[in-house]
TrEMBL record:
Annotated source species: Bacillus norwichensis
Domain VOC: 1-127
Pfam families: Glyoxalase
PANTHER family referenced in this protein's UniProt entry, alphabetically: GLYOXALASE/BLEOMYCIN RESISTANCE PROTEIN/DIOXYGENASE (PTHR36437), GLYOXALASE_BLEOMYCIN RESISTANCE PROTEIN_DIOXYGENASE (PTHR36437:SF2)
InterPro entries reported for this sequence: Glyas_Bleomycin-R_OHBP_Dase, Glyas_Fos-R_dOase_dom, VOC_core
Protein name: VOC family protein
PROSITE patterns for the chain: VOC
CDD domains: VOC_like
Length: 127
């Protein structure tokens, strides 16, 4: 069994697609109309056949509440691995990304957390 798609609730699909492709450099894999919303997935440019991240609208009241509460508590909605957290931090800072936690070592990893502008905190880690 393999994980093929994982969801991330977003407040605005267009804004999320722009952020995840133009700022984070993911690649759009699917963008299919599904009525009022779209099935939009992005993938890592290094593994375009790998796990897809679904930019899912947070229209359900439970999704909105969940997203708001974990954000308010400073909990990242998901985590991405990068080869060098410090370099990625500097690259994203140049693009105006707001970090809530600057790079720091925690045990065997280095991490940082940023705001994706779509209602989520995202953690990047270097193992």
């Amino acid at each position: 069994m393999n994980i093929i798609v994982t969801s991330l609730f977003v407040q605005d699909q267009d804004k999320a697609l722009e952020f995840y492709t133009e700022v984070l450099d993911f690649v759009k894999k699917h963008d299919v109309p599904t009525g009022e919303f779209r099935w939009i997935t992005v993938v890592s440019p290094d593994d375009q056949e790998g796990t897809e991240l679904l930019l899912e609208p947070n229209q359900h009241p439970a999704a909105k509440e969940y997203q708001k509460k974990i954000y308010a508590d400073g909990i990242p909605a998901t985590m991405f691995e990068v080869p060098d957290v410090q370099k990625e931090y500097e690259r994203l800072m140049k693009q105006g990304v707001k970090f809530t936690i600057e790079p720091k070592e925690v045990g065997d990893i280095t991490l940082a957390i940023f705001d994706d502008t779509c209602g989520n905190l995202i953690q990047i880690v270097q193992k």
